[in-house]
């Protein structure tokens, strides 16, 4: 798993929908060490990242990119569901 290059949407782009999480929690989830993340490729330009912050907030982030860009843009973030958290807990068994 490589380094994740990401950004929040710029002016003129669709805004990121943050549901019960803040930008700092999103940043912490996306910048966590890879062994603390679960990354699921949904499509070549859609990625879901799950992680737990230092404050023990379980955060899921959906990212998009345009035309195979190496920079992912935050589209949506929210607390993990129970099923997402279970998948995150089991991530080490897949490594």
Number of helices: 3
Major sheet attributes:
6 strands, mixed
Proportion of residues in extended strands: 25-35%
* Shape category: globular
The residue fraction in helices comes out at 10-25%
Cα separation of the termini:
10 Å
List SSEs in N-to-C order.
EEHEEEEHH
Contiguous runs where pLDDT drops below 50 for at least 5 residues: none
Radius of gyration: 13 Å
The count of DSSP E runs of length 2 or more, i.e. the number of strands, is: 6
Chain-averaged pLDDT: 92
Coarse structural class: alpha/beta
Task: List its salient traits.
3 helices; six-stranded mixed beta sheet; 95 residues; alpha/beta; globular
Q: Mind explaining what this structure looks like?
A:
By secondary structure, this protein is an alpha/beta fold. 21% of the residues lie in helices and 35% in strands. The protein contains three helices and six strands. Strands 1, 2, 3, 4, 5 and 6 form a six-stranded mixed beta sheet that branches. It is globular, with a radius of gyration of 13 Å. The mean pLDDT is 92.
């Amino acid at each position: 798993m490589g380094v994740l290059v990401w950004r929040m949407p710029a002016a003129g782009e669709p805004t990121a929908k943050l549901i019960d999480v803040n930008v700092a929690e999103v940043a912490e989830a996306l910048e966590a060490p890879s062994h603390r993340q679960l990354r699921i490729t949904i499509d070549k330009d859609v990625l879901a990242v799950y992680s737990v912050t230092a404050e023990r907030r379980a955060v899921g982030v959906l990212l998009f990119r345009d035309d195979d860009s190496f920079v992912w843009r935050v589209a949506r973030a929210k607390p993990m569901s129970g099923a997402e958290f279970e998948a995150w807990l089991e991530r080490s068994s897949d490594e």
